[in-house]
Design brief:
The chain contains 14 helices and 18 strands. The protein is α+β, with helices and mostly antiparallel strands. It has 3 domains: 328 residues, no CATH class; 60 residues, no CATH class; 85 residues, no CATH class.
Length: 489
């Protein structure tokens, strides 16, 4: 261990509550990042082959994914939103049959999703594509089981050496090479060289520093990740150790001895201690008898455990927020709905709009690779288009609430219009400016005006014009499956 305590901001956790394995993960990750640079080649001395290595050691990235439920949920949700969508062609006139058979095939789409998970864990993902004449199949290859091999080719006419890259996997002890879709091997084909490659694969990865590997998003938030993992470990270890005394209850009073004639009768300290133990108080009890028979019974309580539970909960929530920020993902995407928001607020919609842009940017990275395969192997002319998910916003809740509260007399006409205006922009709610203030501030209970309204008692000034507006609104409401607004006919 590196020290006696692990510092988590304002709170320190003793190392005996954190496993050596977790401490080792943290130290090795920081060491790897201290030496990170553009991925360099390394030579496998046994195979005498050159390989490119990713930014983050695979065993460390894999450890983070398997030991953080938060990171795992975020990565899997993000990959779902990027890949599990509808695939189409930019030219609607072109036959999309092959697209439906390949990318809209449920199995193939799921395999792309698995490769997308690897992409977010390790910085790259791999999926092999095969075509047996009857079906085109996509098969994810676990990223931690492949290597990116670099093979030199000496051009005999130009007298220059070029390097070509392959995905290498070990299949039953045999090294199998796959060409990367989107990478140009035409020079090799001109000379009849294939380096023993046996197929093609989609390689998802690359950034502004290298075309092959990303720096995983979670790396920038690694301190929050480690804190989240450490708190989980801390809580787990405390549970394993059982109930830990939270304090000492010190009781002083007259010394009491056992009565030989009543051996089963408990002394006062035994009675108190048994009672507390039965209540599972987590309190250590000590009774100190005094030789003075006149001393009254006195009790003092001393806390000797720091109370970090509340702060740990707050700190862990903050860590989750921090990890979500790396993916621009709203908390509600993980079914965490702890944000209070007014009905006329568009905050959630705005957050999802930002998140959708992040999804679209990730799809734009993948689409060119799919386009190359479609055009080269399937003769498709137009580009593939991946849709983005449609997240359910608060529209339904906003509309149903506005209608219900208006019909129950809890919303005025003006309050109802304020909620409905953003949902139905084609309705000119500004025409209500010509309505009287009394009419706009009137509440209707199932169509009848409430209170001492000037429009009550049969005097419905302005209701004809109001009816024209509400008839148009009700037509849209009913068409969308909502109840209509009720008003005097």
């Amino acid at each position: 261990m590196t020290s006696d305590v692990i510092n988590l901001g304002e709170v320190e956790i003793k190392n005996d509550y954190i496993t050596d394995e977790l401490i080792s993960f943290k130290d090795k990750l920081e060491e790897a990042l201290a030496n990170v640079g553009t991925p360099a080649s390394y030579k496998d001395t046994q195979m005498d082959n050159d390989y490119l290595q990713p930014y983050i050691p695979l065993h460390l990235a894999r450890y983070a994914y398997h030991h953080s439920s938060t990171l795992r949920s975020i990565i899997e949700s993000f990959s779902q939103d990027v890949f599990l969508n509808e695939y189409s062609l930019s030219d609607p006139e072109e036959d999309a049959t092959v697209i439906d058979k390949l990318w809209n095939n449920v199995y193939n789409k799921y395999q792309l999703y698995l490769a997308g998970i690897d992409w977010q864990i390790y910085g790259y993902g791999v999926a092999e594509i095969t075509d047996n004449g009857r079906e085109m199949k996509v098969s994810q290859i676990p990223a931690h089981l492949v290597r990116l091999r670099k093979i030199p080719f000496h051009h005999p006419l130009l007298n220059r050496t070029y390097y070509f890259y392959y995905c290498e996997q070990n299949v039953n002890g045999v090294q199998v090479l796959l060409r990367l879709v989107g990478y140009d091997y035409s020079m090799l084909d001109d000379f009849g060289v294939d380096h023993g490659s046996r197929g093609v694969c989609i390689w998802i990865g690359g950034c502004n520093e290298t075309p092959f590997f990303d720096i995983p998003r979670w790396i920038a938030k690694r301190r929050s990740l480690f804190t989240d993992m450490a708190i989980d470990e801390y809580n787990s270890r405390k549970i394993e150790r059982g109930n830990i005394n939270a304090g000492l209850l010190l009781i002083t009073g007259p010394l009491e001895r056992k009565d030989p004639s009543h051996p089963d009768k408990k002394t006062i300290d035994e009675t108190i201690e048994d009672g507390l133990r039965g209540g599972d108080s987590g309190t250590l009890v000590q009774y100190l008898g005094s030789s003075s028979t006149s001393q009254p019974v006195d009790m003092k309580y001393q806390v000797f455990e720091d109370n970090n539970y509340e702060y740990f909960g707050f700190l862990q929530d903050r860590c989750v927020d921090d990890l979500l920020k790396a993916f621009k993902m709203p908390k509600v995407r993980l079914a965490i709905d702890d944000t209070k928001e007014s009905m006329n607020s568009h905050k959630s919609d705005s957050l999802y709009e930002i998140y959708n842009r992040e999804i679209f940017a990730s799809q734009m990275f993948v689409q060119p690779v799919l386009d190359v395969y479609d055009k080269y192997f399937m003769g498709v002319k137009s580009d593939v288009v991946i849709s983005t998910p449609e997240f359910t916003d608060k529209t339904s809740t906003r509309v149903s609430t506005a209608v219900e509260l208006f019909n129950e007399g809890l919303f005025t006409l003006a309050m109802c219009f304020e909620l409905l205006a953003p949902v139905y922009p084609n309705i000119d709610f500004t025409c209500s400016d010509s309505f009287s203030e009394d009419l706009l501030n009137t509440r209707f209970y199932h169509g009848q005006p409430l209170g001492g309204s000037s429009i009550g008692g049969g005097g419905y000034d302005g209701l004809d014009e109001l009816g024209g507006v509400l008839d148009g609104v009700n037509e849209l409401l009913v068409g969308d499956g909502f109840k209509p607004l009720q008003y005097p006919e």
